[in-house]
């Protein structure tokens, strides 16, 4: 019991989506005291004995009080809203939180040339964290992992309880055996993407909690492959040739301007992600976390897909 009291405390901000995966990994590891910060009471978590604190993310005071009273050591945010994260970061600083993880579990931020430098967006959050880290006020890191493999399960990431736009039809639609792939006009569907299951991402994030030094970015991936190989694996798993449409850079920009004009948010997200893929933002390159935690055996993409899909019968 005494040892348990001495365990440092981690707060996961956001109970759903990736937050749920990270929460489960932390509970399984059993090395950290855990508190979930949520906008709502979470009775099913509380019934399992998981501590949940309801917070008002518009109130610095509400966040400060919870973080200070709970003596939180590390905050992991899965909240995709930059404004909320900026309030949360300020509350972490005033409450004496030592480490912060922003909701950045995608491509490498250092390879993200396309996000605007004006306005409050994800880069604003990262710039604020850079400042705090450089001034030794708050340690932070981003976890780069590429695309979640869960994008390709029935119902996609939304079907896994995540937020956002991915319903399992982006890039490769295994249900309807079709694909829409961004291409380079010279080399075809040659962009490299990294893929990691959210289950593995959560395990690496949990493992990284025990590292004494946190670099500004930590990298992981389960698989690294060209888009055309992603398609080949999907066709092998479904045992069918897919109907494929290719979008070159001009198609992407044209469709994106139309999606923006018509307010088609899902298409905007899909096309922006395709643009990022073409810029190789989802090619993580190296995987330092896989090397540090070799016991975390990441699932290969084909094995992952076969858990959800059978060969097509029609
Ligand atoms: N690499 C990939 O392919 C990929 C795919 C999807 C997501 N991601 C990453 O994972 C992160 C989390 O995505 P997600 O889909 O898990 O997020 P999400 O489901 O939209 O949100 C996660 C949790 O955050 C809280 N939340 C959401 N919006 C909020 C708001 N406006 N204000 C306060 N709290 C809010 C909610 O928890 P409560 O209801 O408990 O408050 C929610 O359950 C993203 O930022 C992204 O970095 C990566």
UniProtKB/TrEMBL annotation:
Protein name per the record: NmrA-like domain-containing protein
UniProt KW S-adenosyl-L-methionine keyword: no
Keyword terms: NADP, Oxidoreductase
Residues annotated as domain NmrA-like: 10-153
InterPro entries assigned: NAD(P)-bd_dom_sf, NmrA-like, NmrA/Isoflavone_reductase-like
Molecular function via GO: oxidoreductase activity
Pfam family, any one: NmrA
UniProt-listed SUPFAM superfamilies: NAD(P)-binding Rossmann-fold domains
Protein origin, superkingdom: Eukaryota
Record carries keyword Metal-binding: no
PANTHER family in alphabetical order: ISOFLAVONE REDUCTASE, NMRA-LIKE FAMILY PROTEIN
Native source organism of the sequence: Orbilia brochopaga
């Amino acid at each position: 019991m005494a040892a348990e009291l001495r365990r440092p405390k981690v707060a996961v901000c956001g109970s759903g989506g990736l937050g749920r995966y990270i929460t489960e990994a932390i509970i399984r590891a059993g090395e950290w005291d855990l508190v979930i910060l949520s906008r709502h009471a979470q009775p099913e978590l509380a019934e399992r004995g998981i501590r949940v604190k309801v917070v008002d993310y518009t109130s610095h005071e509400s966040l400060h009080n919870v973080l200070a009273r709970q003596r939180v050591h590390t905050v992991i945010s899965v909240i995709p809203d930059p404004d909320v994260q900026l309030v949360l970061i300020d509350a972490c600083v005033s409450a004496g939180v030592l480490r912060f993880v922003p909701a950045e579990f995608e491509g490498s931020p250092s390879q993200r040339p396309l996000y605007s430098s004006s306005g409050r967006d994800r880069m604003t959050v990262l710039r604020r964290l850079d400042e705090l880290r450089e001034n030794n006020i708050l340690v932070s890191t981003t976890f780069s992992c590429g695309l979640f493999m869960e994008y390709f399960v029935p119902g996609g990431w939304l079907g896994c309880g995540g937020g956002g736009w991915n319903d399992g039809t982006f890039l490769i639609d295994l249900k309807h055996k079709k694909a829409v792939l961004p291409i380079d006009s010279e080399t075809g569907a040659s962009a490299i993407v990294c893929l990691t299951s959210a289950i593995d991402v959560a395990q690496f994030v949990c493992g990284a909690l025990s590292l004494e030094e946190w670099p500004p970015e930590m990298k992981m991936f389960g698989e690294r492959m060209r888009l055309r190989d992603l398609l080949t694996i999907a066709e092998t798993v479904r045992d069918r040739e897919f109907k494929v449409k290719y979008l070159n850079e001009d198609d992407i920009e044209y469709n994106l301007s139309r999606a923006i004009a018509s307010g088609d948010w899902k298409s905007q997200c899909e096309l922006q992600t395709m643009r990022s893929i073409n810029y190789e933002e989802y090619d993580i390159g190296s995987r330092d976390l896989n090397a540090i935690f070799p016991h975390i055996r990441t699932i290969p993409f084909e094995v992952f897909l076969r858990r959800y899909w059978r060969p097509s019968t029609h």
